[in-house]
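User: structure tokens for this one?
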Amino acid sequence: MSSHDYLSFISNICGKLKTIKRTGWVRSGVPLPESDADHMHRCCMCAMLLQQDENGKEQYGDSTIKYHPSKVDKNKLLKMTVSHDLCEALAGDITPHCSKELIQSKYAKEEAAMEEIRKIVGDPLGLELFELWKEYEAQETVEAIYCKDIDKFEMIVQAYEYEAAHLLHKNEADPSKTGDVCHEPLRSFFCSTNKAIKTPLFRRLDREQRQRREVMLKERGWEVTTEERQADT
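Assistant:
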């Protein structure tokens, strides 16, 4: 393997993730929106929470015992969280708000991107990254489910932070500027994820984050709809 291939992986793939702005935030008029790399970095820090001894706070019943931290391959989870959006360096950040044609081609584009990344970096790392991506997409293993929960949780934390930084008091907001974080809460991010999180730890953190957000919004004159609160799965 030549150093040129490694440098292409480091710069053209990993480096590009530092410049790709997350589509949802751009669409919502967020000033200086985070990059894919920003998102995945905090996802990794969330994954490291499973190493904490105080996970005894969580209740694991018959339906959730499979999510107990002792059953999670934490090294694999960390690798998955740091690479789950790697494909977007070539495929782009495709969201439910993109065109119908783009949404329908999302999996194929991302799979092709991962195959190309595998060629650039070479095996065994290329194969490992490709298989981690496929496992994440299949959502069948406990590590993949945790990674998806973390992906959604990190997004709602970021949405809250953008609202806290930019959302005006309702009396000062311009109702004609819909879809702009300065003039309207980022409701869709909370509504679309209200049933998404499955693991006890991140369900608790998700619930606490939404409660914190509700207090902040009410202080600024905004109401919170039922759909924005955490719902039963």
